[in-house]
Amino acid sequence: MDIMEEVVIQKVEQFTTADPDKGEWKIRSLADWVNLNFPLGMPEAEIMKAAESGKEERSPARFTMA
Fold first, then answer.
1. Where are the domains of the chain?
2. Side-chain-side CA neighbours of residue 49 (13 Å)
3. What is the four-CA torsion angle of 59, 61, 63, 66, rounded to 10 degrees?
4. Whether residue 45 has pLDDT greater than 70
5. Using an 8 Å Cβ cutoff, are 27 and 43 in contact?
6. How far is CA 9 from CA 16, 34, 35, in A?
7. Do residues 57 and 66 make contact, with C-beta atoms less than 8 angstroms apart?
8. Which residues, at least 6 apart from 66, have a Cβ–Cβ distance to it below 8 Å?
9. According to DSSP H, which parts of 1-66 are helical?
10. Looking at residue 39, what is its pLDDT?
11. pTM for the full model?
């Protein structure tokens, strides 16, 4: 796993929880971080859409979003 992947996973874990209640997630903060570090212009709704359509995959060290 490269350093950028590790950093992104850490930030996602920082701003979200394993709890399926996405109301507790800090989506605005995650979107701000994503758009500050990657010139994507990704709105909060796109992050939620990606989270809802994603699935968990077991990796050797943790669960990741695919």
1. 3-65
2. 5
3. -40
4. yes
5. no
6. 10, 12, 15
7. yes
8. 54, 55, 56, 57
9. 3-15, 27-37, 44-53
10. 85
11. 0.71
